[in-house]
Design goal:
Helix 1 (2-14) packs across helix 3 and helix 7 (178-194) crosses helix 13 (310-316). The radius of gyration is 23 Å and the shape is globular. The strands form three sheets. It has a six-stranded mixed sheet, with helices on both faces. It has a five-stranded parallel sheet with strand order 2-3-4-1-5, with helices on both faces. It contains 16 helices and 14 strands. The longest helix is centred in the middle third of the chain and has 24 residues, at 205-228. The protein is an alpha/beta fold. InterPro entries: AAA+_ATPase, AAA_14, DUF4143, P-loop_NTPase.
């Protein structure tokens, strides 16, 4: 095993730098903490590591940098004990490096049982800066919360944001230029349906569909079925299709349970809760609770569900026409979720799509078409009630094309097109 580690380390160090697309996320290269990157499969975690490695190579001896991907078939099966050969093999190659700082990148580390014990030990005993990635929020967050407590900084990684999508396509963001705005709006119409998985950019609709399906299969079989020993795979697939077709709607496990019983499925409520939880663990779905001052009260209300990328929504959409309202709403959710893990919806007499507490707090409604007075009034009234409840003086209404500023009851509501909102 030591010889294999040495070969993989040397091969990577001898290879030319990887070509990467710059992302907006700022990850420190030197920290007293272990840097953990988590997120859905194929969202760009590995290329973020490559970007950090390229950055380091400008000032650090390439021999001080180690990169290993634990999805490499040559490293299967690998045990906790096998990991002991990693740094010993490295120091056998470069004995003088024991006195120098070494940068160690461990990609998809969740494939090694009890990996966190090894990471904790070498972090505490060797002069290494550690970077780890994984594709399961439960796996990493639970282990970080116990074995790595106080030792790690965790960063969530998502598919490309709209701003990153524009940068990838070399579209200049200048809102004062009509030329630039035209290109931005055209790009938004594509991004709305295609989402932010970089491997789908510029591909034909057929290739995009195949790529999204491959990603879902990876998540279903590698992250869920194999890891949790799921037997009822038909139910899991049906649940994914149901979730993607009902983005932005309230999900009731009791209602789902009754529907599946009527269809003849042998299922329990506990199984439905588990499967939905697994999909969240794999960063495929997110749930949004109602905002209340009491956690107990929050738990008594149904939650909304959203997808990690609009591409999955497009793939599994069951209607003949695009569901623009849900596509818009999902993009706004992801924009807010990148900023904060705390995203809620508000509902009393009226409903508001999103409330994000913090500094600053945000209250946001999404409505594609507000040309009819009744629709505009409904959206405004919801925001006004939400502002009274939360004490906010400002709120936002995201639309397809209208831009405006309203002041009602001394409170300010900004109406903004979605493409422009996503650039804020």
């Amino acid at each position: 095993m030591q010889a294999l580690f040495q070969r993989l380390i040397t091969d990577f160090q001898d290879a030319p730098p990887k070509q990467v697309i710059a992302r907006e996320q700022v990850i420190p290269v030197d920290s007293r903490k272990i840097i953990s990157l988590i997120g859905v499969r194929r969202c760009g975690k590995t290329y973020l590591l490559y970007g950090l490695i390229n950055q380091l190579r400008a000032s650090v001896d390439p021999r001080n940098i180690i990169y290993l991907n634990f999805e490499d078939d040559r490293l299967h099966p690998l045990t906790l004990q096998d990991l002991d050969s990693l740094m010993e093999g490295y120091y056998a190659l470069y004995p003088d490096k024991r006195s120098e700082k070494v940068y160690l990148f461990l990609d998809e580390i969740q494939n090694i049982p009890e990996w966190e014990r090894y990471v904790r030990r070498i972090h505490d005993t060797l002069n290494v800066q550690l970077f780890v990635t994984g594709s399961s929020s439960r796996l990493l967050s639970q282990e970080i919360a116990t074995s790595l407590r106080g030792r790690t900084l965790t960063y969530e990684v998502f598919p490309f944001s709209f701003r990153e999508y524009l940068a990838y396509h070399q579209i200049d963001v200048n809102l004062h230029s009509s030329h630039s705005r035209s290109y931005i709006q055209h790009a938004f119409n594509n991004y709305l349906h295609q989402g932010g998985f970089a491997e789908t950019f510029g591909e034909t609709p057929d290739i995009q569909q195949r790529t999204w399906r491959d990603y879902l299969d990876l998540i279903i079989y590698r992250d869920l079925i194999e890891r949790y020993d799921i037997k009822n795979t038909a139910l899991l697939r049906h649940l994914i299709r149901y979730a993607m077709s009902n983005i932005g709607t309230l999900i009731s496990v009791n209602k789902l349970f009754n529907e599946y019983k009527e269809l003849g499925h042998k299922v329990s409520k506990e199984t439905l809760y588990l499967y939905l939880g697994y999909l969240e663990d794999a960063y495929t779905l997110f749930n949004v609770p109602i905002f209340r001052n009491s956690v107990r009260e929050e738990q008594h209300h149904p939650r909304k569900i959203y997808a990690v990328d609009n591409g999955f929504k497009t793939l599994l959409h069951t209607s003949l026409s695009p569901d623009y309202s849900k596509l818009y709403e999902n993009l706004v959710f992801l924009h807010l979720r990148r900023q904060s893990r705390e995203v809620y919806y508000y509902k009393q007499t009226q409903e508001v799509d999103f409330y994000v507490p913090g500094k600053p707090s945000q209250l946001v409604n999404v409505s594609v078409d507000i040309r009819t007075p009744a629709t505009l009034e409904r959206e405004i009234n919801g925001l006004l009630e939400g502002m009274r409840y939360t004490g906010l003086e400002e709120a936002t209404l995201v639309t397809q094309e209208r831009a405006d500023m309203l002041t009602i009851e001394g409170k300010h509501i900004t109406i903004v097109p979605a493409w422009q909102y996503l650039l804020q």
